[in-house]
Amino acid sequence: MDNEKLKEKVLSFVPNAEVIENKQYLVVTVIPGMLHGLAKKLKEDEETYFDYLFCQSGVDYGDSLGVVYHLESVKHRHSIVLKTSTSNKENPVLESVYDLWKAAEYHEREIFDLLGIKFKNHPDLRRFFLDDSWGYPLRKDYVDDVDIIEK
């Protein structure tokens, strides 16, 4: 499916999605409450069949925290990027996609560990690399007075 048809399909699922075509991927941005439903439709629909989550990354945009999902259909050989974000930096919570793609288990644990985004319905959400004394080192406002090296 080419990007134009993929865009039409996405907009049929979520009419208020923001869809941008960049050089490599079709990038779809939705509000957090719509992400899981859209992801489920994109995986289960026979025309799209996004069966492979090949990257999931957390992002600190400064005023919000977000997650970027790179999906591919092995069967149809097309890809898409989904994005969502929350402005609640005190208690950031998004829906887990673990029930759709098992690879999300470790991606979401890493995002939680380094950015503090909690994922509802994750089967084992706990720190992956660091202990609780670290805080969330990938946040732009993170300060480490003990281990920081300055020039």
- Mean pLDDT across every amino acid position: 94
Shape: elongated
What structural class do helix, strand and pairing data support?
Answer: alpha/beta
CATH architecture group name? 2-Layer Sandwich
Class, according to the CATH hierarchy? Alpha Beta
Low-confidence stretches: none
Helix share bin: 10-25%
Oligomer designation: single chain
What strand line-up does the widest sheet have?
A: 1-2-5-4-3
- Could you say how many structural domains there are in total? 1
Radius of gyration: 16 Å
Total DSSP E strands: 7
Distance between the termini: 51 Å
**Could you describe the largest sheet, including whether it forms a barrel?**
5 strands, mixed
CATH superfamily grouping: NADH:ubiquinone oxidoreductase Nqo5 subunit
Helix-strand topology string? HEEHEEEEHE
CATH topology: Beta Polymerase, domain 2
Strand content: 25-35%
User: How many H/I helical runs?
Assistant: 3
Write up what this structure looks like.
A hairpin with a 4-residue loop joins strand 4 and strand 5. The N and C termini lie far apart (51 Å). The protein is α/β, with parallel strands linked by helices. The longest helix has 13 residues, at 32-44. The protein has helices at residues 3-13, 32-44, 104-115, and strands at residues 18-21, 26-29, 52-60, 65-73, 78-86, 93-95, 118-120. A five-stranded mixed β-sheet has the order 1-2-5-4-3. A two-stranded parallel sheet has the order 6-7.
